[in-house]
Amino acid sequence: MTSASPAKENWQIPPHFEQTPSAVEGISVFAPLPVVEDSIAPTAFKCPNCGATTQYDISAGGVACEHCGYQNAVKAQRVGLNASVFEFTLEALDHAERGWGVERQEMSCRNCGAALSVEPRAITTTCPFCGSNEVNLQAASGESLRPRFIIPFKIQGEALAAHAREWLGKGWFHPSELVSQVGMERFNGIYLPYWTFSAGITSDWKAEVGYERTVSHYNPSTRTTETHTEIDWRWENGRAGTRIQDMLISGTGRLSRTILERIHPFSLADLMTYSADYLAGWKALAYDVALQPAWEEGKRSMRERAKSACYDQIRTSHVRNFNMSAGFSDENWRYILIPVYVASYKFEDKTFQVMVNGQTGQTAGQKPVAWWKVWLAITALLSPGGLLVLVGLPLLFLGGFGIVPIIIGAVLLIAGLVFSAIIYKSAVDSEVA
């Protein structure tokens, strides 16, 4: 047995390395120690004066205690449209903070699958999105990206109630008792996840473009000059540059996109740097539409805008065989939270959803329809035309006098059908938005 060399006897494992299992016998393998990042301790919302739980107060603009009157302004900065953006790089994602930065619970709904972040003391038993009471409360996951910016709630109290009552009272074909049955206690203030995307787009297009030309010719049979329009087609091409700034894409598929779009816009000029204090006493929804799928959706919308920019360069409405290639540059993103009040209510065993823009008060949602009112209105619209046609038919056979009421009746009937279709579509849309 040979003795070990002095170099081997004195060799030590380098600092910050550890031995790991080796796949080859007789060969030692060493790897760097895993990096343990310091985590920020979660914020505890306790009043320093009386020990009661505090919450974010909209009118005070900070965390407040309703027991002793203590107030503390949120340590956040208004950044607006100058809020910093991130590039689509792994480095940007790796350095992004995770979780909410505060101790939270997660309310998981078995019915609709929503995962809503609530305060540890919350005892919520009803899902604000679908009205189901089949919910579980558990510790919130800290794996999701932490939002960097937030638009705080501005609408509250009587202003919220006024916006909701005004919207609920609109529409003659809704039940008159609707306003009294939907109480303000049903509304939950929730911060919703959104992605903002910006990019420059260079679009090269090619298409057949048609230009109208008026052609005149003499018709010997009528001895008149007649004209008609012909279209001359020719290939054209061009390049359009478009800059799209701060396109908002929802980070959740749990809520109706139709209703969300109806309560837009949100002003990004009110963006504040994110602070966990804003969540004190409020709910928040983590994103379930991740960055990459949201970016793909954003790019589809951006391509449509780029296509419109290309069409704007064409001086005629006659276009065929349009082709476009779009190149993206300077793409960036943000993850933000926006304020929305959400309510779900039941009316005659059906669940309906209402949303209020927590920044502007814009309200939209689903409302039940009193269908007897709709059918009564449609009957009233179709009856005059139908009656005139019925009266005109026998008169037509008794001397030809029925042609006038038949023509008038037909016109009224067509007009009635058009308005009836509009009313019916509006009623259906209000129920299933």
How would you sum up this structure, described in words?
With 433 residues, the chain is α+β, with helices and mostly antiparallel strands. 25% of the residues lie in helices and 32% in strands. The protein is built from eight helices and 17 strands. The strands form three sheets. Strands 6, 7, 8, 9, 10, 11, 12, 13, 14, 15, 16 and 17 form a twelve-stranded mixed sheet that branches. Strands 3-4-5 form a three-stranded antiparallel sheet, with no helix packed on it. α7 packs antiparallel against α8. It is flat, with a radius of gyration of 33 Å.
Can you give me a brief rundown of this structure?
Helices cover 25% and strands 32% of the residues. By secondary structure, it is an alpha+beta fold.
